[in-house]
Fold each of these.
Amino acid sequence: MSAPVEREGVLLVSVERGGASAVAVEAARAAGVLGEVERRCRWYGPEWFSLRTPGVLDVGLLAELATRPGVRRAVAVLPGAPLYARTPEREVTPVALGAVAVGDGGVTVVAGPCSVEDATGIERVADAAKAAGAHALRGGAYKPRTSPYAYGGLGEVGLRRLAAAGARVGLPTVSEALGVDDVDPVARHADVIQIGARNMNAFPLLFRVGVHPAGRPVLLKRGWAATIDELLLAAEYVLLGRLLAGHPPGGVMLCERGIRTFDQEARFTLDVGAVPILKARSHLPVIVDPSHAAGRRELVAPLALAGVAAGADGLLVEIHPEPASAWSDAEQAIGLDDFVRLMDDVRRYAALRGGAG
Ligand code: PEP
Ligand code: MN
């Protein structure tokens, strides 16, 4: 007889396409997993359900549930053991990104324009990023803009340009999915899916990105009014999606990009303290984005170095061949020469803390 593992948990059941919540509930009952279904809710897609289980969860019966007709996958998440949490057995889960593993002790640098512009421009950036020692190329194709009249990105054309520029120099790419409809194209063309600060609470989007069959790693930005707990729970949605889809553990990078405080000198206030806190609480690598925090190019380098000193696993920096004429976020883009200087300093700071640049 298999041992009961925990009283009360959350059971997540994936049913086959076209299946209904009743399939999940009945299968769970038939397998004897649930004493009683206390509550059930439709997940963020037609085939996923979560069931709160007040009874004893039994690992053997859980495996049995997964074999029931109509059930594709069943997993239990136990209270007190969130998927994001750092444990003695799982202190860090590096994320593979091209030639590097984010979270292996070094500093991974993702650089590129705020938004992908013309093909020549992104190629110039890719060449310069590669030459300066960056590890990945970024560029937005679906841009979240505060004003609906601001430039919103090139969509799939931009993704293709980014992918071509990255492939040319052998750099993996990072691009944002703004809504659930963008997840497919971004997963098709980019190596990492970014979820922006404005979407940190877009729970259906987080879940969709996690369950996507491509299993792309996710760079999740902290909302500017989000607590550290809220960021971690947002990551939990992605991790849960990944678990339900059968992707390997981890695959999420947390990004501190500045929070809103009473001071308006900089665009946001980089919460440097969040870096060691996140690293203590979670096994997920932590990236610092000095560019969106700064909002002004002269602040980007000092904030980037503060992030490295605080223990960040990586940096996300906006660079542009002609910063002042960037199509979006022109005030915070740094020029290609400044980026070379920043990379030199990043390597020096990384060496100081005992990791490679
Ligand atoms: C971005 O990276 O271009 C971006 C929009 O950042 P954030 O979501 O942090 O504002
Ligand atoms: Mn930007």
Amino acid sequence: MDLGIDPQAIKGFLDPEEGARLYSLACEVADIGPCLEIGSYCGKSTVYIARACLERDNVLFAIDHHRGSEEHQLGEQYHDADLFDNQAGLMDSFREFRKTLILAKLVDVVVPVVATSALAARYWNTRLGMVFIDGGHSWEAAQTDYRSWAPWIQPGGYLAIHDVFPNPDDGGRAPFDIYQLAEQSGLFTVQSMSKTLAVLKRV
Ligand code: MG
């Protein structure tokens, strides 16, 4: 797996093992449908998935409003001052995201969608090979991501969810809750857990 860029140089919270898993999943689904991720931030997960898309002639839709999740806001634990647009008084990870795509030479396989997940889903009408959910960690955000996008995954395709912590002492519940929803839906079978990346396959 040659990503054409050092992923460790990209801001973000994805472990290399999780990234490698995303890459291999995206390779597998190339004949099923396009890939879609929610929560691109600065493009760390994007380069793993998009590299597979480049190699397999597929496309990645990369959804993020680029105003940061709760934990990225000014004064919060994961705030990054480099990503704060002083003029707008808001977070802006899109400039950094675009820079990542250019450096990694992935502009031609990624469709950035700068909008909330709910808005992007409103008129969506395309079957998908893979959905990677790494958006907001509030209960509402995670539920919206799951309910908006999971139904589009085609048989044989994958649903991957980041920050799934089976033990509540390790982290927030929202991603784990939607993981359980998927598991109990009867539509998915659990495939693997790499660090905090849960993978389910559409039956
Ligand atoms: Mg995450």
